[in-house]
Amino acid sequence: MSDTGPVAAPIKRHAARPHRTRGQHRASWAAELSPLLAGTQRRYTAVVGSAVAGASIVAMATAAGLPSGEEPAPSRAVDDIAALAAEASVPETVASGGSEGATASPAGAAAAAAEAPAQSERTTPVTGQDAQIRWRPMLDQITITSLFGQRWGRNHNGVDFDAETGDPVYAAYPGTVKHAGWESGFGNLVVIDHGDGVETYYAHNSALNVAPGDWVDAGAHIADAGNTGFSFGSHVHFEVHVDGQPVEPLGYLSEAGLDLR
Hints:
Structural class: alpha+beta
Radius of gyration: 45 Å
CATH superfamily of the largest domain: Glucose Permease (Domain IIA)
Mean pLDDT: 74
Keywords: Signal
GO molecular function: metalloendopeptidase activity
Distance between the termini: 128 Å
Number of helices: 5
Oligomer: single chain
Organism: Glycomyces terrestris
CATH architecture of the largest domain: Distorted Sandwich
InterPro entries: Cell_wall_metabolism_enzyme, Dup_hybrid_motif, M23ase_b-sheet_dom
Order of helices and strands: HHHHEEEEEEEEEEEEEH
C-alpha cells in the first residue's frame, strides 16, 4: 500500500445511459425519464403516463407488504414522477425572443394571457335577407278591367286582368294544384291550394300547363290566358278564397306585400 492511500476504483458508466453507474444505487425516476422528455414534448403524455402507472403499482405493492395499521413511507419515485408530470404538462410556447421549443412557466403563461388583447367579436359575411317566398303578379303586364263586388245584379268574386290569348299565366304563390280543368262558367280553371285555408283561382284560360296534385312555385307558368267559359273577351279572372269564402283580392294581396292597384 502506497503513502497516497488506497486508489479508488474507476466508476464504470453504463454504455447506453451514462447517467447510471454499475454496482451502485438505481438512478432516480427523474433521471431515467429526463432523456426521453428532452425535445420530445409530443410523446411526453405517453411516457409520463406509463411512469405514473409503474410508480402506482410499486406504491401499492409496498403498502400490501406492510403490517396492518402501519403507514407506508413516502415514495421518492412517486414524488419524482409528480414533478415530471407537472413540468411536462406545461404547453409548448414560443419564447419572447422568437426561439422555438421554449417552455413558459405557468406564471408566465397566465401573465401573457392577461396581457393579450381581447378577441374581436366573430363576424359573418352572410347578411340578413328578406323572405324568398313572395306573392307575385299573375301576368307580365297588369291592367285591371273589373273589380271585386256587385256587377250585373250579382257579386263578382274576383278581379279581371286584361290579357291576350296565349299570354302566360303565373302562380301567385307556392302551393299544390287542387283543380286543373273545365269548370262551368270559369272555363279552363286552375285552383291552387296554398295552405292555411288560402286558395287562388285562375279562370278563362285557353290552355293548362299543370295537373291536380302538382306542386308549383311562385311564378310558375301554370296556364295560358284565353276566352273560355262565360267570358266576353280574352282576359284572366283571378280570385282569392280564405277558408272557402272569396275575399277582395287586391286588398288581400296588398296586405301580403303585393300591391297591384
